[in-house]
C-alpha cells in the first residue's frame, strides 16, 4: 500500500500546535490527499473529545492554496449543526454578522500556528451549545428539571444518544471536585490536569410508564490510576426520585476522602520499600513518586537473581506481587527466565513495614531454591 504524502509545512505546524497546546485530548485519525499524484496531503479526520467520547470531523485544506482556511465537514448524525452558515436560530442579521466577525475564519492567517487551535475550540464550544439545545427540546419532565438545577455548574456536557438497536438516552458528563489533583502528589509528573467525571445516562421513559433509574459511572483521566482507581470507589446509592444536584455533594465527599487515603497510601508504600533495603540492599530501581514498583538484587551462593515488587494502589490492604528474574539463565528467545507472579507470600496489612519485609525475605530464602530449579528446567540445552 502506497503511503499518503506528507502535509504542507504550514498545515503540519497548525496540527502540531493543536495537539501540543490544547488541554483537550484531540487526536488525528487519518491523513490523506484530495487529489491524485499530489506532493502533499491536505485533509484529515479530527477526533474531537466530547462527553467522554469522540466525534469525527473532516478537516479539508487545499494543498494548492495552503494559505486558505480549511472547510470542516461534520458527521452525518449532526446534519442540523451548521455553525459556519451566516445565521443560526434566534439570531438577527446584526448578531449573525458580529458572530462571524469574531470567528477565526474571518481573519484567517495561515502563518499563525494557533489558527486551527482557535477554530476547532470555537466550533467545539458551539457544538456543546448545539447538543444542549437538542436535549432541551426532548419532551421529558425529569430531564428538564435536571437541566434547570445542574447547569449552573461549569463544564457540564450533555448529549442525546440513539441507535438502531436501542431507545434514546441522554448522557450528562459532570466534572467533579473543584481542586487541582496534580498538587496533591509531591513532584507530580502529570503534564495535564487530572479530572474526575460523573457520567449519568438517563433512559428516556415513555408516557405513563415507570421512570427508569439512571446509569451512573465514575470516569477519570487515565494517568490518575497511578494514584487510585475510580472503579474501586463504592458509589452512594441513587434514591428513587433523586436528582443530580442532590446526589453530587455526597459523592464529592466520598471522593475527597478517597483522595486523602490514596495520598496516605503513597507514604505507606514508600515506608515498605525502605524497610526492604536492610534485607535486600538498596533497590536497583524504584518508583520515587507513587512507589508502585521496586526491584532488588538477591544472591544465594552462586545464584544471582532479581526480585520485582509490584504494589497496588490499595496497598497494604492488598499484598504485593513478586516476580523473580534470573540474571544467569535465558530461554530460547534470549530473554531472562522469570517466575510466574507470586501471590502466596505471608502477608497481613496489620504488620509493620519492618515485619512485612522480614517475612517476605524469609519466604524468598526458601522460594529461591525452587526458582533455581525452575530456571534450569527452562534453559534449552
Model description:
- With 381 residues, the protein is an alpha+beta fold.
- It has three domains: 9-124; 132-262; 269-378, Ubiquitin Conjugating Enzyme, CATH 3.10.110.
- 31% of the residues lie in helices and 23% in strands.
- The protein is built from six helices and 13 strands.
- The chain has helices at residues 9-21, 93-102, 115-136, 141-150, 244-280, 353-378, and strands spanning 27-32, 43-50, 53-60, 71-73, 157-163, 166-176, 196-203, 215-220, 285-286, 293-300, 303-310, 321-330, 336-338.
- A five-stranded antiparallel β-sheet has the order 9-10-11-12-13, with helices on one face.
- β5 (157-163) and β6 form a beta hairpin.
Basic shape: globular
The main pleated sheet reads as: 5 strands, antiparallel
Which structural class should the secondary elements be placed in?
alpha+beta
Q: How many domains, in number, for the residues?
A: 3
- Trace the largest sheet across and list its strands: 9-10-11-12-13
Mean pLDDT: 90
Oligomeric state as shown: single chain
- Counted by DSSP, the helix tally is 6
Radius of gyration: 28 Å
Helix content: 25-40%
Give the SSE layout.
Elements: H1 9-21, E1 27-32, E2 43-50, E3 53-60, E4 71-73, H2 93-102, H3 115-136, H4 141-150, E5 157-163, E6 166-176, E7 196-203, E8 215-220, H5 244-280, E9 285-286, E10 293-300, E11 303-310, E12 321-330, E13 336-338, H6 353-378
Helix pairs in contact: 1-3, 5-6
What labels describe this entry?
repeat, five-stranded antiparallel beta sheet, 13 strands, 3 domains, Ubiquitin Conjugating Enzyme, 6 helices, 381 residues, globular, four-stranded antiparallel beta sheet
